Amino acid sequence: MNNDAGFWNRTAEKYAAQPLDDEAAYQKKLDMTRALLTPGSRVIEFGCGTGTTALHHAPFTQHILATDISEKMIEIARSKAQAQGIENVTFEVGGLDNPDLAGQQFDMVMMHSLLHLLRDPGAGIAKAHDLLKSGGYFVSSTACLSGTMRLLQPFLAIGRLFGAVPYVAFFSQRHLSAALRTAGFEIVQEWLPEGHKAVFIIARKP
Ligand SMILES: C[S@@+](CC[C@H](N)C(=O)[O-])C[C@H]1O[C@@H](n2cnc3c(N)ncnc32)[C@H](O)[C@@H]1O
């Protein structure tokens, strides 16, 4: 099992029960994403958690492959899909290094609340670029923790020793958008909802 999966497996039930902290911002992100989807869209989501976002978008796509390293998150996501009667989302346990993805191309890649959890966010961005068709979209929400937030780092490192917090990378919004451009993306939308730390970015592969 991936080392980080243990934390997310332990957290999954609680995560699933948590209400959204900003319903209006979430809805706006769904709407901006949906505007890019067509009935023929093939989408992949990494770090799908309990599948909420994939299940919202499913009726507007051909198929969504929604993956997560946590078996428990995927188990909850599958039961939600079954309860909602949604059949065009495949939930699979897996990470960005899934060898089955070799040679596959998608119209959209989603990573919500994931890039800042990766040891190498640049590799996550490169993976999204590889998996997209030309003209496809990378849609992400990413907590950008920099400046004084860095003071949290030692506390997080201690928390990690006890399995109480996941790994978290620290970088700024400016760093993230520069990394997307360097990887070859054009940024179409960049929105930091008021009072949020997570920036919502839609980036297009030319
Ligand atoms: C903060 S949750 C976000 C879940 C969902 N995307 C959302 O926005 O509600 C982060 C998710 O990423 C998953 N995750 C963490 N590290 C990962 C990795 N290296 N590859 C794939 N998924 C990962 C966790 O299991 C967890 O479900």
Hetero ligands: S-adenosylmethionine
What is the element string, with H for helices and E for strands? HHEHEHEEHEHHEE
Q: What shape does the CA trace take?
A: globular
Poorly predicted residue ranges: none
| Class derived from helix and strand content | alpha/beta
Describe the strand arrangement of the main beta sheet, using strand numbers.
Answer: 3-2-1-4-5-7-6
The total count of helices amounts to 7
What is the H level of CATH, i.e. the homologous superfamily? Vaccinia Virus protein VP39
The tally of beta strands, per DSSP, is 7
Which bin fits the share of residues in helices?
25-40%
Rg: 16 Å
Q: Using the coordinates above, name the CATH class.
A: Alpha Beta
- Mean of residue pLDDT? 95
Annotated CATH topology: Rossmann fold
Structure description:
With 206 residues, the protein is of the alpha/beta class. It has a single domain (3-204), classed as Vaccinia Virus protein VP39 (Rossmann fold, 3-Layer(aba) Sandwich). Helix content is 37%, strand content 23%. α1 (3-17) packs parallel to α4. The longest helix is centred in the first third of the chain and has 15 residues, at 3-17. The mean pLDDT is 95. Bound molecules: S-adenosylmethionine. S-adenosylmethionine binds at residues 4, 8, 46-49, 68-70, 73, 95-96, 112-114, 117-118.
